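Submission sheet (multi-component)
Chains listed below:
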Amino acid sequence: MIISPLLSSLTTGLALTGIIEQDVPLLLNQHILPATARHCAAVAAEAGRLAGRFGVDPGAARTAGWLHDVSAVIGTDWLQAAEELGVEVLPAELVYPNLLHQKISAVLAHQIFGVTDPAVLAAIGCHTTLRPGASRLDMVVFVADKLQWDQSGRPPHEAEMSAALERSLEQGAWVYLNYLWESREDLVVLHPWAEAAWRELAPARA
Ligand SMILES: [Fe+2]
Ligand SMILES: [Fe+2]
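Outcome: structure written.
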């Protein structure tokens, strides 16, 4: 694996074991990001549970959950990192570069952690916004991240999402996309993948 200079500088001196559930906390804690390490552990566990429930590979879901926010080690210069790592930047991501953290986590998953499964990398790369044509693994990781969110208190959309998940995985994902859609005026920007997924998954209206 060829690792970019930016990423090799972030892992200097780190003795990775090859076991993702050990290596992700190792890297995040080295960068003094214990809250992110706890969030990633929680999302991995939630993704594993949802995967079992909805017939998705739980191992793939847990791996994606562990790695989804690992790009926190980059800091805040997402545009610079995207350029160095060859990540495509959409106009909405220029407006709100933090949205790039999903794609950049996928690059770290590949280059630092050796993940090669394109389905896992894709799920990491769309965990914030989902995407049109999303796989069920994408949806599991997206929903797990929203149920185990990284802000204080309980997520306001938790009850509605849980109820929708009783109907289907798609409807659970749609609840959060609809929350984004309805608050679009208050968002810095609505990512085009989120809007496209919202349209695609909209439940049929009676
Ligand atoms: Fe994230
Ligand atoms: Fe997250």
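Remark: The longest helix spans residues 34-54.
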